[in-house]
Amino acid sequence: MQITAETPFKASILPPSLFKTPSDLPALNQNASRMPWQHTIKQPITCVGVGLHTGRQMRMTLSPAPADHGIVFHRIDLPGSAPIEARYDNVICTRLSTVIANELAPEVRVATIEHLMAALHANGISNLRIDIDGPETPVLDGSAAEFDFLIQCAGVATQAAPRTVIEILRRVHVEDPNGAFAELRPARSGFALAISIDFTAPAIGHQRHAMPLTLQRFRQEVGFCRTFVERKEIEALQNMGLARGGSLHNAIVVEDDHVLNPGGLRHPKEFVRHKLMDAVGDLYLAGHAFKAGFMGHKSGHGLNNRLLRAVFASSENWRLVGNEVHSKAAIHATA
Ligand SMILES: [Zn+2]
């Protein structure tokens, strides 16, 4: 990666079309945030930008989808290819980003979905068709803020179907030998997250952040926080074919106690807050929102995915609350 302030790409957000979806129910929209309904977007919207790891220019269109559809990606550059459901058991790689693929065709994949998934989770979007002409979502500014902006531009439509929530019934914990762990615990209501990180780079160091997941708190505290990398890692990443689209416009780059981005940080705890945002995105691959508490220490995409697999490995860990009949099929419990 060139450490340069030159703009390597032009991300552009195209105006939404005038298409109106049948699922657009204005009568329900007035109280959308207070009512337990499913949501999609009101009209299609497109963005264009470079992929963080591939370095390729990607065009992605979000479109409304009917109730109980879920979040589904389509690789339109691979005509006739199978769709890819945004589900934890379709995750095939978690090295630096979360990559999903069709279970029958691993070459039909989409990488770096976590920031888009975080914005969808925070906005309560449960049904969406995503057309993309390459193997990775555009990274845009390296945070979830521009995906959130896309959703705002398209508008949120409430659908005439109740939403489903996954209630965690007992503590589920996964860990790595280095002390990193991730866990979900029962909670009385809502979904709250607490996460801590510990980096040797003094510019990052030890940071902790906790918050309940609401759209307002997401926007105020974590949605704008960018992905980050240590400068010494960049060459090795690029030799592995990763980070080829990275620049100071879509990632924080640190070296010892310095932040190399000319504009500095957007928040002193931007690093841990980005990690919390990543978890919001990764955990939405459960297929529904949670009634639970999440705790993570030095956790990342790999532990987040192992945690979901551990949850759904036993039906004693969880139950569906709400639209159970419709949503049982959306969760592929492995036990
Ligand atoms: Zn991230």
From TrEMBL:
UniProt-annotated catalytic positions: H301
Pathway linked to the protein: Glycolipid biosynthesis; lipid IV(A) biosynthesis; lipid IV(A) from (3R)-3-hydroxytetradecanoyl-[acyl-carrier-protein] and UDP-N-acetyl-alpha-D-glucosamine: step 2/6
EC number: 3.5.1.108
Keyword Transcription regulation: no
Catalytic activity field: a UDP-3-O-[(3R)-3-hydroxyacyl]-N-acetyl-alpha-D-glucosamine + H2O = a UDP-3-O-[(3R)-3-hydroxyacyl]-alpha-D-glucosamine + acetate
Keyword Chloroplast: no
Positions that bind Zn(2+): H115, H274, D278
Cofactors named for this entry: Zn(2+)
Pfam families the record matches: LpxC
Protein name per UniProt: UDP-3-O-acyl-N-acetylglucosamine deacetylase
Gene of this entry: lpxC
